[in-house]
Specification:
Layout: H1 7-30, H2 37-51, E1 54-55, E2 74-77, E3 80-82, E4 96-105, E5 108-117, H3 123-142, H4 149-163, E6 173-175, E7 182-186, E8 203-206, E9 209-211, E10 217-219, E11 226-228, E12 234-236, E13 239-244, E14 247-250, H5 255-258
Antiparallel strand pairs: 1-4, 2-4, 3-11, 4-5, 6-7, 8-13, 9-12, 10-11, 13-14
Helix pairs in contact: 1-2, 3-4
């Protein structure tokens, strides 16, 4: 179901978005060669406990997955891209790590994700991450009143195509509000001018994720971790945005940027 928020409700969502942004920055700073994924998981639990927030992942039990999710952060390494189950794994030099974090604060949800390279980065990994970040900004710029969700999806797909990356449409962005997943679904590929009309009060996430050489995925035996079908590396970026009369506001950016409507991204070299 799609829930339109009032301006007051969007203001009430800001603390959750800011906490998610701060927690991701903290977790990102701690991701280093030799750090165990479970150390990041336990630090995320500590942050949530100290803030008095509630994890949206703990006990999450959708139609896919192997039983309730018993962690508070998704940590996906290299060819894993979504729903990575934290485990006893020490990060290695050159690992590509995606961190996805969603919590509820005072009954409102914030959801975002970042990708980074631990230690020595390979150019092709930085390029892949950059593509997801540029696609995210392009999607945000397209999320304007009276546009359609298809405009957002098409903007994301256009950036992927410019980099030569295939796009999987099974998982994407989604409405955000009192729960982590509301309507509408925001695919990473679509046709401009189609889909639900964007209007003030709509709050949703945009989350481009690409694998370098495939649009197909496979699941680990844990029933959660989603990997590229051919073992190629992956990256994932995500923000929660609110639509206002003046355009999109990014709720999961740190405070200096979160209060400003997102600008249209400038053209970037595709390197």
């Amino acid at each position: 179901m799609i829930h339109i928020k009032s301006p007051q409700e969007i203001e009430q969502m800001r603390p959750a978005g800011q906490f998610v942004a701060q927690a991701l920055a903290d977790l990102r700073s701690r991701a280093a060669v030799g750090v165990n994924l479970m150390d990041l998981e336990h630090h995320a639990r500590k942050l949530i406990r100290e803030r008095g927030a509630t994890s949206c992942y703990w006990d999450y039990a959708p139609s896919f997955g192997n039983g309730p999710f018993r962690h508070v952060v998704c940590l996906s390494v290299n060819d894993a891209v979504l729903h990575g189950l934290p485990k006893k794994y020490a990060l290695r030099d050159g690992d590509l790590l995606s961190i996805d974090f969603a919590v509820s604060v005072d009954g409102w949800v914030g959801d975002a994700a970042v990708s980074l390279v631990v230690g020595t980065p390979a150019d092709e990994d930085l390029r892949l991450i950059r593509a997801t970040e540029e696609a995210l900004e392009a999607g945000i710029a397209a999320a304007r009143p009276d546009n359609r969700i298809g405009d957002v999806s098409a903007a994301v797909a256009a950036v992927a195509a410019s980099y030569g990356y295939p796009v999987n449409d099974e998982f994407g962005g989604h409405g955000v509000g009192r729960t982590m997943h509301e309507g509408p679904h925001v695919s990473n590929t679509g046709r401009a001018g189609r889909g639900y009309r964007i209007r003030p009060g709509l709050v949703f996430s945009i989350e481009p994720w690409f694998a370098r050489t495939t649009d197909r995925v496979v699941y680990d035996p844990d029933g959660w971790t989603i990997r590229s079908a051919d073992g190629s590396r992956t990256a994932h970026s995500e923000h929660t945005i609110a639509i206002t009369e003046d355009g999109p506001v990014v709720l999961t950016r740190l405070a200096d940027d979160a209060i400003k409507p997102a600008p249209a991204p400038e053209a970037a070299a595709r390197g």
